[in-house]
Amino acid sequence: RIPEHKNDRIISLQSASVVYDLLTIALGRRGQYEMLSECLERAMKFAFEEFHLWYQFALSLMAAGKSARAVKVLKECIRLKPDDATIPLLAAKLCMGSLHWLEEAERFAKTVVDLGDKTSEFKAKGYLALGLTYSLQATDASLRGMQEVLQRKALLAFQRAHSLSPTDHLAAFYLALQLAISRQIPEALGYVRQALQLQGDDANSLHLLALLLSAQKHYHDALNIIDMALSEYPENFILLFTKVKLESLCRGPDEALLTCKHMLQIWKSCYNLTNPSDSGRGSSLLDRAIADRRQLNTITLPDFSDPETGSVHATSIAASRVEQALSEVASSLQSSAPKQG
Questions:
Q1: CATH topology match: 10-81 vs 166-336
Q2: pTM of the entire structure?
Q3: Which residue numbers delimit the Tetratricopeptide repeat protein 7 N-terminal domain (predicted)?
Q4: pLDDT tens digit string along 61-100?
């Protein structure tokens, strides 16, 4: 390239960036992310060492569901802007999600932590991402010894995140969750109450509180918490599933059956299954119920982009895993309790 054409190239790049920004707004509003990512991919011939277009391309790939390619593009964004902590945090979130690239996620989270004072406001988010990664790795580990090591690492990372950002309800929530998984129920209760003091209407914190109370056999108190949470989130199926279990203990199977019927009505309205013949075409309500129950057990990760407020979205790690862990605690407490008479 001829040096005297440098100014012309800068003007051309600026013009192209403006056009692609307008295209991003237009296609983004219409949800045409696939088309947007294809258009931005063609723009890469203008994008040598140009962070803005690379980042737009990565975000469009994310929105189009092309997570694997998005991670590769985000790596280039990190190279172009190494001091921006939001980029490795975003990459870590993608890796922990549907890709399940936990080793990659760990590396991205450590990148944020290692940035140190350059991005101190994001350091707590880095430890939060690191703790989530270790917790998921512990779930995948086949050896009990490795599970315990990874759970301890996760606990230390969450404790560090909470100490760096004591006003972040997500840090308190995930610390409580990890303590619950590690069978430290009283300590978990303390931190989940802290999370609720910071974000009183968080569905996942309310759910975790109910599970912890049920692990201590305070079933009626747990059911009251679930009822309170459902007043804010009446169609939250994770809460409704727990309500069914608690109602069968506290109010009998008839009450639990009514809640099950209510859940089926919600599913019916969600899928608009008004025609009974729909059940005979391979997409019955029961099949969809089973599929949605599996979806409820997946992980929803926090939004790492806001260093001050954290995410406003509900977050939880595999609610079924916590329920299983707490059920084991409840069973062990029940078996060790002295029998009367």
A1: yes
A2: 0.75
A3: 1-40
A4: 999 999 999 999 999 999 999 999 999 999 999 999 989 9
Instruction: Give me the pLDDT at residue 6, please.
Output: 63
Token pair 């995140």: residue: 161
Asked if residues 241 and 266 have their Cβ atoms less than 8 Å apart, the reply is no
Give me the CATH code for the 166-336 domain, please: 1.25.40.10
CA atoms of 153 and 138, how far apart (whole Å): 10
Residue with tokens 């450590």: 110
The residues spanned by each domain of the chain are 10-81, 166-336
The rounded distance, in Å, linking the Cα atoms of 36 and 32 is: 6
State CA 317 to chain mean position distance: 7
> The domain 10-81 is classified under which CATH number: 2.70.240, 1.10.10, 1.25.40, 2.60.40?
1.25.40
pLDDT confidence band for 270 (50 / 70 / 90)? confident
Written as six digits, the tokens of 130 are 């690191």
